[in-house]
Amino acid sequence: MASSVLLKLLRPSAFTLFAIFRPAVERGAIIASRRVSSDSPPDNISRYPVPYKKDLPYDIVALMEEVETKGGFLPNVFKALSHRPAEFRAFFAYYNELMNKETGGLTKADRELIVVATSMHNQCLYCVVSHSALHRIYSKKPTLADQLAMLDFALAVCRSDTITDQHFLLLEEVGFDREDAWDIGAIAAFFAMSNRMAHVTDMRPNGEFYNLGRVPRAKGKQDRESK
Q1: Are 82 and 51 in contact (CB under 8 A)?
Q2: Dihedral of CA 203/25/132/7: which sign?
Q3: SS3 for 74?
Q4: Partner residues linked to 106 by β-bridges
Q5: Which are the contacts of 132, defined by CB distance < 8 A and separation ≥ 6?
Q6: Fewer CB atoms inside 10 Å of the end CB: C or N, the chain?
Q7: What 8-state DSSP symbol labels residue 73?
């Protein structure tokens, strides 16, 4: 079902992208199985220098530590964007407003799926890998769900198509109202910016993302102590 959705939605360049991504995904899955979160991050996660934590503002360090504690590793986007702390704060403030909520007809899994589809169009390896992992976790499904109207609208925004009343009618036919449409469009637009920043910085996905949501997470010391 997922493959038929993508056939309808994505232009041929996206399938070329799958061929490009597949070796990296396979390599990443192998790397992730060998690495632990305490390993030092690779030096080439970004073409810009990653600051040491001791040189970062307290609030940014606190957020990083919270994310790493909850997830078991720190996603490279936090490291790469910490190069500019003020922009880091603005990015994640808007990210949280868009992504960490379930309102109207959009679930968190839906929101992640929008990111995956539009990031494929924008050829952003980092966001495809990392948000596919988050989609697997939220949806509890190893493959993409059939959300044709939602993704069609998101990709129309991503491609800078002319948005017409017909787009909104198609969304309404499957239960998405105008506020949902705003969220779908905002997520697509925000990650168009995020995808391009990943290109500029040459941001690399964490090895842990490749198996996240596919392989059960090993219980660590903190998990055992929380029981």
Answers
A1: yes
A2: positive
A3: coil
A4: 103
A5: 112, 116, 209, 213
A6: C
A7: S
H-type helices in the chain, by residue range? 2-9, 12-34, 58-71, 76-81, 85-99, 108-121, 125-139, 148-158, 165-173, 178-201, 221-225
Residues written for the chain? 227
Structure-block tokens of residue 222: 């903190």
What are the pLDDT digits (tens) for 11-41? 434 333 334 344 444 444 433 333 333 344 4
Q: Are 167 and 193 in contact (CB under 8 A)?
A: no
Cα–Cα distance measured from residue 110 to residue 112, given in angstroms and rounded to the nearest whole number: 5
Interatomic CA distance for residues 119 and 176, integer angstroms = 22
* Residue 183 in tokens: 């969220």
| Lookup result for tokens 């959705």 | 5
Q: How far apart are CA 206 and CA 153, in angstroms?
A: 29
Q: Which amino acid appears at position 216 of this protein?
A: P
> Do residues 128 and 116 touch, judged by C-beta distance below 8 A?
yes
User: Tokens at residue 195, please?
Assistant: 């995808």
| pTM listed for this prediction | 0.63
For residue 56, count other CB atoms closer than 10 A to its CB.
16
Tell the residue number behind the tokens 């964490």, with chain if given: 206
Contact 205, 124 (CB under 8 A): no
74 vs 56: CA distance, rounded Å? 15
166 vs 153: CA distance, rounded Å: 10
